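[Solved] Which block belongs to which protein?

Original post:
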Amino acid sequence: MSTLFTIMNPAAGGGRARECFGDARERIERAGIDLEVHETEGPGHAREIAREARQSGVSRFLAVGGDGTSFEVVDGIFGTGPGEPGDLSDDRPTPTLAMLPLGTGNSFLRDFDIDTTDLAIEAIARGRERSCDVIRVKHRDGVIHYINLLSIGFTADAGGLMNRRFKALGPAGYVLATVVCTARLKHPVFPMRLDGGDLDDRPAVLLSFSNSKFTGGTMMMAPAADVGDGELDVIRVGDLSRVGLLRTFPKIFTGKHVGEPGVEATRAKRVELEGLGELECMVDGEVIPLTLEALEVVPGALKVIA
């Protein structure tokens, strides 16, 4: 019987993870997979559990919760020191991550056409693995790692508002927060260089650095993204008016916002950000204050079961 080191966030999805995990666990174990379960006790705990497990030699993980739980697990697996993505001195097996989507948005697995718990359990039972890039983010105070997306500007503001006021509404909360934030629309400058190119210091409503397609549940932020292509999809929404943003926003659910006036999609292996102060950053569904310096793709650092 194979074993998955399982990190379960009982608070995910407003408590949905706690309610649904027992049945899901039984079904997974009937498929011949043993789950060594560790429950989290609060924010950041999943990261600590994953880091300690990886340091002790664990290579196969299951994250139970939403995108935020998976983010903490990934960041813990690839914490500083041995085992960081791209560390050639680390001869341990490439870590593998399965996910049971019992959170609020559950965006990442949608890239693999997994949008229900049943489909996720079927994928875990099959055990097929896909190579997945990991994004290493350097900020003033250290390094973090993610697999979904990091965004700044409008989406981070909306994500923060959703987490504070509308989280109980699930994916609809993202939509409501977006409408509220449109009323106080800003056009800041986030100076950046893609792969060492020219400095881009044009005003922007938002920047998204996407490894996968979806965010906020069903919003297809980066419709051409591929988690294993070795590149970030950089989505830039420029100096749109409120009317322009409201006209463009609904198209994000089909990915047709890309190519609309003011919306650009490019790709890069490395992004450098210059002169930024501390910003709210939305990282895989979690809003974190960071002073960003650079983002870099580490190709194929993770295997995902999907």
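(Second protein starts here: sequence line, then its structure tokens.)
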Amino acid sequence: MSFSTGARLAVMMFLTYAIWGSWYMTIGTYLTTALKFTGTQAGAVFGTTALASMISPLIVGLVADRYFATERVLCFLFLAGGGVLLLVPRASGFGEVYALMLLYCLIYFPVVPLTNSLAMKQMTDPKTQFPPIRIFAPLGWIAVSVLVGQMRIEAESTPFLIAAGCSFAMGLFCLVLPRTPPGGGGGTGWRSLLGLDALVMLEDRSYLVFVAASVLACIPLTFYYSFTNPYLNSVGVENAAGIMSLGQASEVAMTLAMPWVYRKLSIKSVLVVGLAAWALRYVLLAFGDAGSGMWMFHAAILLHGICYTFFFLTGSIYTDSTAPPALRNTAQGLLTFLTFGIGMFIGSLSSGWAVDRFTTVVNGVERRDWTSFWLSSAAGAAGIALLVLFVFRSGSPARRRDA
């Protein structure tokens, strides 16, 4: 891979995740503070990301695999997504916001697997070449999170406008991405046309184990994404969005360490360590505060590197190495469908229900029992970790599976 190609892929990752980071961590604050949505309503809106991940990545991945160059598909998606984002600040009712966010997520979430697939198609050894490119994704997230935090606009609609600007810029940049023509593979029956050929990968027991654990892990994961920013703001943490960017900084460090992790740990071990990190971070969030306990918030956020990379980065690389060449885009879409789709949809509904479950109204003022909320999240993550530890039997080193 040439320096020019690597540089373009790095910019692609930076802008793609700057778009996502602009609104993803603060939307819960905006919905519950500015628009006065209930926890259940906010959870439902957040769940549009999961619904979209269950619908569009498989279909769009199939289109890129069979009909159009990947960079052209990405160009269309980013430009269309930018247009929808401009409409979100104009909406105030639950129905309007929900419909617009669902439409936007249907457009945006296919770009996650497609950018991964496009990048890895330019590489001779994705296992070692992809992580250094992938670190520009959290760097983009960090940059925009710090900007949003410094501007103190977490409870405003401005982050959607920032995301729209980044989306338009990325759409134009797609025109200079490396040419990535469709593979033209796959069958012609209904199964192929629906993008279901990639389901054959689940016949591999090792891959099925990995996917099952990843889907389960996405349920408690969503509690963090949906409500950490509203929680930190409610307990008086200043510049919460900027502080939360520490999580992406740790993600950079862990991304660089992943080649070593793949050599030393089995897939089962990676999953167990990741889930244990999720449980620990929730305990830290439960007992931290904006004063002497601020270190607990910092520690919880810094654990994001382990929590995220041990599932999503590993999953993308493992899927790319397992999928038939003609189905790599579709396979990445399948993984997104199962994790960001099914797993996070269940998690979004559960987190919204849990917030309302631990909320009481006293003299017209809502009071949330955040400690119980986070401890319930920790219990869920710990339970899934124990399930993986005692039920799943996948013990070979991850590097052997990537071979």
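Accepted answer:
You had them paired correctly. Confirming on the second one: Residues 286 and 374 are 5 Å apart (CA to CA).
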